[in-house]
């Protein structure tokens, strides 16, 4: 799942490479991806891209009139093809839409899932996309404070891991970075927000900010086709069940619960208890 560090790097790449280019053609190959049926992507022909921005886990192509917002969903991404580049390997995720730009470059919206999670929204303003309008505060924002974090957590009897991934509470975090945050904060993946004392909440706040902002810095300038691999390589606990914890040397464990999974270190996070 794309999360804020990788989506931020994608938006920065698009702002640099696509700004100033006119859209010459739009080919939608999977019409289920189009979420604004009264404003189809084909109507973007002739408009000029003026920039790009990230909103949580969504990327916005800012146009001289309106915007194209790509909701990346669980398996979506974007692929950049320079003029004259060969067709992508058949083993790569298929393109659901292709945008041809002046100068010969093509921007493809792709989806690697077995069901369509990517969405295309042609809007006058990004906040017209319901999921963006409901986003909570973003830990990557320099203005994000402990008060914002405490408001997001509340005193709810809800697992902190779920709250970290709840886009209406905190924007941009998914399953992978929530595992990394909880490990750094030394917090169990099943603890409820209501059970955190002030020291635990402070550790979790510090870990959230450090993890997300550190990952954004680390991904900056990485080619967009390598961002997923770089993300995977950077993980300390997520996706590493059975491996050694880099902090204490214990074995990282896997936990499946509700509709998600978590990887955690018993010594660092649960007082040695196996969940």
From TrEMBL:
This is Fpg/Nei family DNA glycosylase. Belongs to the FPG family. It comes from Microbacterium jejuense. Residues 236-270 form the FPG-type domain. It catalyses: Hydrolysis of DNA containing ring-opened 7-methylguanine residues, releasing 2,6-diamino-4-hydroxy-5-(N-methyl)formamidopyrimidine. The keyword Zinc-finger applies. Keywords: DNA damage, DNA repair, DNA-binding, Glycosidase, Hydrolase, Lyase, Metal-binding, Multifunctional enzyme, Zinc, Zinc-finger. The keyword Metal-binding applies. Residues 2-116 form the Formamidopyrimidine-DNA glycosylase catalytic domain. Its cofactor is Zn(2+). It holds the Pfam family Fapy_DNA_glyco.
């Amino acid at each position: 799942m794309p999360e804020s560090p990788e989506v931020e790097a994608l938006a920065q790449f698009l702002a640099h490479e696509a700004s100033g280019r006119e859209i010459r053609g739009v080919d939608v190959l999977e019409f289920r991806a189009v979420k604004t049926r009264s404003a189809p992507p084909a109507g973007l022909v002739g408009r000029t891209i003026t920039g790009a921005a990230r909103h949580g886990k969504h990327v916005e192509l800012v146009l001289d009139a309106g915007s194209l917002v790509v909701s990346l969903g669980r398996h979506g991404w974007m692929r950049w093809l320079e003029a004259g580049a060969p067709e992508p390997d058949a083993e790569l995720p298929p393109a659901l839409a292709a945008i041809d730009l002046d100068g010969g470059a093509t921007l493809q919206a792709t989806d690697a899932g077995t069901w369509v999670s990517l969405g295309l929204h042609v809007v006058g303003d990004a906040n017209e996309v319901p999921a963006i309008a409901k986003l909570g505060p973003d830990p990557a924002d320099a203005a994000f404070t402990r008060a914002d974090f405490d408001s997001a957590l509340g005193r709810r009897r809800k697992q902190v891991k779920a709250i970290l991934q709840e886009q209406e509470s905190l924007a941009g975090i998914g399953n992978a970075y929530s595992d990394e945050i909880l490990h750094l904060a030394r917090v169990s993946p099943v603890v409820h927000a209501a059970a955190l004392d002030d020291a635990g909440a402070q550790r979790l706040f510090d870990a959230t900010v450090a993890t997300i902002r550190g990952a954004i810095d680390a991904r900056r300038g990485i080619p967009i086709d390598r961002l997923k691999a770089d993300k995977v390589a950077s993980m300390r606990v997520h996706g590493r069940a059975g491996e050694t914890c880099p902090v204490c040397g214990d074995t990282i464990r896997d936990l499946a619960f509700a509709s998600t999974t978590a990887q955690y270190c018993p010594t660092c996070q649960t007082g040695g208890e196996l969940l």
